[in-house]
Amino acid sequence: MSGAQSGVRAAGFGTGVLSRAAGLIHTLVTVEVMLLLAAAPGLAGLLLLGPDPANLPLAAVCLVPLGPALSAALYALHHRGHDLTDLHPARTYARGWRLNALPALKLWVPLLAWLTVIAFTLTHFPATGLPGWWAVLLTAVGAGSLLWGAHALLLTSLFTFRARDTARLAGYFLFRHARATLGAASLLLLTAASTALLTEALPALLAAPLLLSLLHSGRPVIAETQEDFTA
Q1: Between 66-78 and 132-158, two packed helices, what is the crossing angle to 10 degrees?
Q2: Rounded CA gap, 13 and 73, in Å?
Q3: What is residue 82's DSSP assignment?
Q4: What is the spatial distance between Cα 135 and Cα 107, in angstroms, rounded to a whole number?
Q5: What is the pLDDT of residues 181-218, one digit of tens each?
Q6: 32 neighbors 81 (Cβ within 8 angstroms)
Q7: Cβ neighbour number for residue 82 with a 10 Å cutoff
């Protein structure tokens, strides 16, 4: 084999279809493991809590580490390499966690607190004495808050904005890009259905593919943010 042919083959190694597929699988598995490790303290606490609605505030506290873990995973998946010879998903995840942990917490903790209030009210609704339509309204508000949170998590993972600016942009994109919002809604429904019908552990074990789908559905949000809201 000539030197030129060897150089061509060497240059093409790691960039073919099979190599890209192998690289994607390697990245997904690594990011999944890193995410579970980062969220492990809270997830372990959840396993010790019973299904009693009175434990909702404690469950929210256990979910606090999940916010930075999800944000770092989105960062790592967005910045993943496509060349099999140049993959560093664990390093990229660690960088994403360092960059995004505090910004993510600034939005994640208030969202958790708000959702906990809604969930606690709904689980104790008969004691509130409110009319039945209030339960429907609270459910709708909770669903809207989750969709806002999906956009906010995407934005804070990939861009550097102040927390209040990220919150405003997430609300803006909630209606601006209906397809992206519907994509996030479908992922939330899939997560809820798999939790209710199968096991609570399944969404955690499939977190990386779900987040990759969120990135895919959120491409219009990412593109507009890059074009109109960054220097």
Answers
A1: 50
A2: 27
A3: S
A4: 25
A5: 999 999 999 998 888 777 778 888 899 999 999 999 99
A6: no
A7: 13
Structure tokens at 70: 């999800």
Q: Measuring CA to CA, which residue among 182, 181, 162, 184 is closest to residue 173?
A: 181
Cβ-contact 153, 107 below 8 angstroms: yes
Q: Binning pLDDT at 50, 70 and 90, where does residue 20 land?
A: confident
73 touches 101 (CB < 8 A): no
Q: Are 208 and 77 in contact (CB under 8 A)?
A: yes
Interatomic CA distance for residues 155 and 230, integer angstroms:
12
Distance CA 14, CA 47 (A): 41
> What DSSP designation does 161 have?
-
User: Which DSSP string corresponds to 200-222?
Assistant: THHHHHTHHHHHHHHHHHTHHHH
Q: Tally the residues of the chain.
A: 231
Yes or no: say if 210 and 203 are a contact pair by the CB < 8 Å rule: yes
* Alpha helices, H only, the chain: 3-12, 17-48, 56-62, 66-78, 89-123, 125-128, 132-158, 163-176, 178-197, 201-205, 207-217, 219-228
Picking from 179, 182, 155, 186, the residue whose alpha carbon sits closest to that of residue 168 is 155
13 SS3 class:
coil
